[in-house]
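User: Sequence recovery, please. Input:
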């Protein structure tokens, strides 16, 4: 089997509500999605998606994905998509770095491999837990009142896990954390996500002021060096995601004890192939995991769900599904959707969901 063509689509995914991050440092109301159709000489087609979380969040943006695919396409054509390690190696040689641009091609190759084997991707990867995966909300509000309102909306949809965005003002953050904890429901998982929004001294002040609550913070500082510098000065569980990009990052975090939780974002780390290695480092060191698409449609959520289903249930805290935050529906309602706050693994071979091409408009590029 050989790859005979790649077709690239650009699609805007409007958000249901305007989204703020880290005290307003990032705000947007639409995501720039790239969909890739990979065709083979066997008549089997795979689909991939890359959707960065806006253009100012981390070094990744929609036009960059499409430019990266243009660079890599001549090298990918003719490869066997089922040999995902070979495809990975070729992409890394053709375009060093730029992991976010490689993720949709990797995703499409796994989709083809699963279809060929007659198995969902999670089963093909050796996992395939059918335990419904908790969905984590993303509460990008600014005030305590707005936070309560957004969390209530997600609770009405069955959510029991929440990622509350904080950062930017110490006193304000402390007050919001205490307000959320005062209304926390039994069995809920709440992660306070700073998105690199604190300096070292700000992080320590908030962590110490809320130590009695036993809460967990994600990405409290800009870099791993910052997190390491304050590590012995507090007793708070830490999750990392924005500084968890490569296998080398994962090894350092595990070796130096910088975090108790990994937030694995598939588009950021380069797709399922690379994410599986990071998962294994976490499991080898007793580190629990959140699994997330960086953003996107039901296709991106399905990919995250497949990886999550390869993680033993006790170590999988939640997945994040962006589809409940956007208004666009590109797959005709198919694929894993929220069912009482959980996602259920598709039984269809491969990814388990493909877009309706009519909803995508005309392609922006075709290779060859």
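Assistant: Recovered sequence (368 residues):
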């Amino acid at each position: 089997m050989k790859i005979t063509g790649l077709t690239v689509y650009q699609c805007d995914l409007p958000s249901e509500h305007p989204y703020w991050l880290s005290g307003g440092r990032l705000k947007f109301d639409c995501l720039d999605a790239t969909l890739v159709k990979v065709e083979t000489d066997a008549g089997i087609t795979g689909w991939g998606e890359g959707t960065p979380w806006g253009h100012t969040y981390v070094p990744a943006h929609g036009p960059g994905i499409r430019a990266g695919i243009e660079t890599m396409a001549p090298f990918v054509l003719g490869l066997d998509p089922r040999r995902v390690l070979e495809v990975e190696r070729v992409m890394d040689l053709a375009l060093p770095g730029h992991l976010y641009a490689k993720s949709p091609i990797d995703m499409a190759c796994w989709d083809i491999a699963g279809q060929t084997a007659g198995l969902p991707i999670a089963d093909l990867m050796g996992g395939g837990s059918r335990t419904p995966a908790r969905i984590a909300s993303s509460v990008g509000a600014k005030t305590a009142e707005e936070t309560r309102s957004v969390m209530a909306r997600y609770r009405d949809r069955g959510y029991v896990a929440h990622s509350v965005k904080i950062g930017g003002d110490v006193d304000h953050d402390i007050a919001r954390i205490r307000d959320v904890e005062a209304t926390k429901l039994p069995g809920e998982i709440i992660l306070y996500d700073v998105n690199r929004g604190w300096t070292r001294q700000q992080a320590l002040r908030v962590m110490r002021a809320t130590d009695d609550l036993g809460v967990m913070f994600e990405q409290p500082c800009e870099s791993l060096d910052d997190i390491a510098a304050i590590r012995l000065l507090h007793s708070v569980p830490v999750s990392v995601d924005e500084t968890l990009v490569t296998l080398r990052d994962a090894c350092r975090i595990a070796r130096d004890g910088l975090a108790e939780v990994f937030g694995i974002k598939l588009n950021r780390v380069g797709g399922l192939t690379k994410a599986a290695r990071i998962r294994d480092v976490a499991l080898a060191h007793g580190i629990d995991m959140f699994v997330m698409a960086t953003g996107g449609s039901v296709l991106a959520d399905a990919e995250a769900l497949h990886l999550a289903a390869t993680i033993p249930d006790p170590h999988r805290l939640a997945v994040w599904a962006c589809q409940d935050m956007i208004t666009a529906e590109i797959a005709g309602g198919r694929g894993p959707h929220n069912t009482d706050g959980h996602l259920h693994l598709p039984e269809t071979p491969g990814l388990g969901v493909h877009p309706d091409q009519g909803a995508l408009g005309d392609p922006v590029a075709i290779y060859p």
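The mean pLDDT is 94.
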